[in-house]
Structures are given as C-alpha cells and as structure tokens.
Amino acid sequence: MMLIGQSVQGAKALIGGVQAIKGAQTLKNAKRPEYQIPDEVKQNLTDAQLSEIEGLPAAQRNKYIQDIQRNQAAVLKSSGDRMGGISGLGGIADASNQAMGNIFMQDVMARQQAKNRLSQARTEMAGYRDKAYKLNELDPYLSKAQEGRDHMYAGVTNIMKAADSSAAMFMNQA
What we know:
The protein is mainly alpha-helical. Helix content is 88%, strand content 0%.
C-alpha cells in the first residue's frame, strides 16, 4: 500500500516538475507581434514639419505680390492719365506698404498655424510611440512574467503537496 502511495506522490511531484519546466519554457518562447506606428501618422508628422517652415505657400504669396504690383501699375497709369503726377505717389506707396504688411501678417499667421499643426502631430506621434511601447514591450513582459509565475507556482504547489502526502504516509506507517 505504501509503495502505491509513494508512486502516486512521485507522479504528482513529476507533474509539478513538468509544470514548472513548462512555465519556464513559456516565458522563453512566447512571441508577440510587434505594433507598427501607422505610416499615415508618420506622414502627418513629416508634412507638419515641412509646412511649419513654409508659412504661406509660395504660389499664394506670389499671387498677392502680383496683385499689389498690378494695382500699383493701374493707379500709376490712371494718375498719369489724370495728370495726378507725383502727388498720387504717396497714396500708392502707402497702399502698397499696407498690402505688403498684410501679406507679412498672413505669412506669420500661416507659420503659427503650421507650428500648431506640428505640435499636434508631434503629440499624436508621441501617443503612438507610447502605445507601441506598451504593446511591444511592457504588455508582453507582464504577460510572460505572469504566465511563467502561474506555471511555476502550480508546479511548486504540486511538488509540495506530493511531499506533504509522502510525509503523512510515512507518519501513518510508523
């Protein structure tokens, strides 16, 4: 009878050992897919970085300047036709300066808006980097560690139960 009991306890201890080994192997072999930051997020960041430098698009800025030059030419021509001569030049210069100032302010505002977009794109990118770290590094580590601890705990528990049962058998035999 004692031999059968010892055999059963030995089997329990063996199962516990197998569980502990399985826990260690699980920790070693678990593979998890790696999270990739979407290309669109990277492209948004790149676009925001480029537009931050640009300000008003060159084509828009050039059109504003051409419009100012056309207005200057038209006013000068009409001033000459009406014999306004030099007296009208001051008004033309003031209007041109004001128009150029408006372009400058629009350019400054466009750059500020671009900086704001860049800041938003960087914040979004940082969020995706945090997500990638959590999914690719932290979660797999925590998951593997917990799974390995669970298997090892089960294995040690089974080994200890087998040892307790064996000890109890010896005590009852004595």
